[in-house]
Design a protein that fits this description.
By secondary structure, the protein is α+β, with helices and mostly antiparallel strands. The chain is built from six helices and eleven strands. It has one domain. The radius of gyration is 24 Å and the shape is globular.
Length: 219
Amino acid sequence: MGFWQSVGKFFKIGQGPNSPSTSLTGPGSVLGGMGTIGNTGHLQMMMRNEEVFSVITRLANTLASLPVHEYKQYEEVTDQISDLLRNEANPSMTSFQLFSQLETSRNLDGNAYAFIERDAKGQPIGLYPIRPSSVIVMRNIDDDSIWYRVSSDDMNFTVYNTEIIHIKHISPLREVLGVSPLDVLRGTLRFDDSVRDFSLSEMDKKESVHYKVRPKCQS
């Protein structure tokens, strides 16, 4: 049994106060298993535009390179949690890779998610990034609590908000989802592409034109 199958079996409906049952409503952050970055549209947009690609790469690498410190009562501590954040997020991913993927997803889709794996005592022992389009954010209308439903080909479970790390871009007041910067820039990016296409086509036309010089008439 794989890791995500074990997670789905353990979280049959979730943990936390007031089981969500049928009282959940959600904005449907169908924005997108494990370790994959961004939805197809945003990813293609980034790959087609070198400025967007370079900016997101710089942001992701810079943030992932920053030092991480854990403090308890103003004193820096070193324990299992700090080791997850500084060295190895899970058995197949370094902390640098985790932060880089989360920051990339945040800048592509406006939201980034990571599942917190816990031991029998409830202590975090692993952090696993989840594709944003696999996550639906739901609000329990009974107590206004936030739940996360993760659904894809290899995982299907619902958990309370304490089991998911949700990093989002700027969002309107009381909104639970971040705004994708690429959706905001989509019109600008399309205009930029169209200008480039037009310029290139015009250059091609000019290069393909053959000028005929008519000799001057002798009087």
